[in-house]
Amino acid sequence: MVLLLARRLRLAGVAGGAKRRAGLPQYDPNRESNVQQRAQRLAKRCGVSADSVAHLMALLVAEAHQHQRTSASSSPLLTEPGMATYPDREKHSQWLRLMPPPRRWKSLISRLPPLLRQSLGVRLLAPSIASPQVMHTLQSVVGRRLGIRIDDLGLDWVFELHPGGLKSSEDPAEAIVSGSFTDLLMLASRQQDADTLFFQRRLTLIGDTELGLTLRNLLDRLPWEALPLGRRILLQRAALFAARARDAHRGIREAT
């Protein structure tokens, strides 16, 4: 319940930012009335007290209002959902359009041996969580299996955290996070917020939702400085490059 509340408040912050940019009022009585009516219908179907549900929804709505008021300037990631945090967004170099988009690499990557693809995933992620500080934070998910799927590259991995570090697993994932190469890279480099990407359906989570939310919250608590400086710089530059290239290709499609 706490995890669900935390996620709802983060999404409320994203929605509040969207309202402000669109010039919409913070409060929407009709929408809130519809939420309450739907909750009452669900309460009746589930055999839950109507009064209890009314009090619960009133509390959730009040918390959302409070969060939207206090988060207006607290996080740049919530004030710019869907927008990369790099300057000169509209200026794309012509040569970026010559860079093949990730989906063009899919057929080539599919020819790599499965063992090599699994090894590549571990080599990319394992150093990022190798520090004692990070391992201590992630203790509650040791032994759990999380899948990562890069849709446009056709890559997917199942990772399992052990006391000695991260390992690949041949067993089915308990939860799977999937998205495009660029969006996952933006998430890894902290150029985008996870809730923004989920809210816009650019990331999806299937399977054990509690595990996915727990891991997401744990990763949010990790200090960015825990990653080696070189890896941070590489991640951020790669993410910005990928986002600019994607926008360049989108410009071509819109022009045609």
Explain the overall architecture.
- The chain has a five-stranded mixed β-sheet with strand order 3-2-1-4-5.
- Mean pLDDT is 80; it is low at 75-92.
- It has 256 residues and is α+β, with helices and mostly antiparallel strands.
- Strand 1 and strand 2 form a beta hairpin.
- Helices cover 55% and strands 11% of the residues.
- It is globular and about 60 Å long.
- The protein is built from eleven helices and five strands, in the order H-H-H-H-H-H-H-E-E-E-E-H-H-E-H-H.
Mean pLDDT: 80
Helix content: 40-55%
Secondary structure category: alpha+beta
Order of helices and strands: HHHHHHHEEEEHHEHH
Which outline best applies? globular
Residue fraction in strands: 5-15%
Q: The biggest beta sheet, please?
A: 5 strands, mixed
Q: Order of strands side by side in the largest beta sheet?
A: 3-2-1-4-5
Question: Quick one: how many beta strands?
Answer: 5
Rg from C-alpha positions?
21 Å
Write the layout of secondary structure elements.
Layout: H1 2-22, H2 29-46, H3 50-70, H4 76-79, H5 106-109, H6 114-125, H7 132-137, E1 145-150, E2 155-162, E3 165-168, E4 175-179, H8 181-188, H9 194-199, E5 203-207, H10 209-221, H11 229-255
Parallel strand pairs: 1-4
Antiparallel strand pairs: 1-2, 2-3, 4-5
Helix pairs in contact: 1-3, 2-3, 8-11
Write a compact overview of the structure shown.
The chain has 256 residues and is α+β, with helices and mostly antiparallel strands. The protein contains eleven helices and five strands; from the N terminus they run αααααααββββααβαα.
